[in-house]
What does this fold into?
Amino acid sequence: MPATPVRLDLSSPVRGPRGKPPRHFVDLTPDERVAAVTALGEKPFRAKQLATHYFTHLTADAAAMTDLPAATRDTLVADLFPQLLTRARTQTADGGTTVKTLWHLFDHAKVESVLMRYANRTTLCISSQAGCGLACAFCATGQMGLTRNLSTAEIVEQVREAARALQAGEVPGGPTRLSNVVFMGMGEPLANYKAIMATVRTLVAPAPEGLGLSARNVTVSTVGMVPAMRKLADEGIPVTLALSLHAPDDELRSELVPVNTRWDVDEALDAAYHYFEVTGRRVSIEYALIRDVNDHAWRADLLGEKLNARGRGWVHCNPIPLNPVPNSRWTASDPRVEQEFVARLRAHGIPTTIRDTRGSDIDGACGQLAAEEDE
It folds into this structure.
């Protein structure tokens, strides 16, 4: 099917509820935190105490902050830790080790996060926007349109809530730590670049100024916003970059991922390879396998050829069985076709791993819970 030309306004036109979230402790620099507590009549060292409670003890509950004066702790928390997320709905799968949460934001915008506990790691998939403005054809979030960008604190709060639940033993398997964060939930992360980078810096900063995660365990995904990919390479933070490609040829990719009409397949792959050259970090290529659409053996061969044309050892491919969206014409590939696609990539020497599709029985595709609420 020929691609339909799409004009993209990458300034992200917004529909639906809008608003600026209230000021939160996470949105402030360390110096600004000191200024904020002193403006409330407290000693400067209270800022570090608050940071320790939030980033180490994972709490924003005034009652738990017993090392702060009882007379002022409620004021400090009310002023610096406004409630940004309200749990609206939770679904679980895999014996409770996969937890999908729909959050309502302060202005009734909706986002989702998914916590997945494995034998050797725990991974949280987080959202960076409420909705998405890039309109990928098979994506539940893409069909919602964009409501707004999330603030740094709104993104970090998704992480703190998950880390707190794991620390408290609320996920089967006993208390544990959050080890991995992936920006693969609702939204295009690199379209909210400033907040994403502030979030990444907060995630990897050592306690008590951040959550102390390894940068190598943080993954930032993109559908191919080339200038932002190149900018990310120069940040000096070795996160993993994941490029959601979904087709190796421009004709099909422009239909599936309209941003391809702005930056085509080769430009996106060149930017991904540049990221590898600058950081030394292997790039992940994400590829949702869609039955009779992009799962042809010749497309696997073309993808392998394009990746190898840029070098060896710089990339890892993750074919993903599509999580179907209700009333969509898109569905997952036949398992035999999937196996042939993987075999073709491996024959080209491309390390290839089928992505685990956890939560497919609980509206696994990001955006489905939010979409259901709007029906």
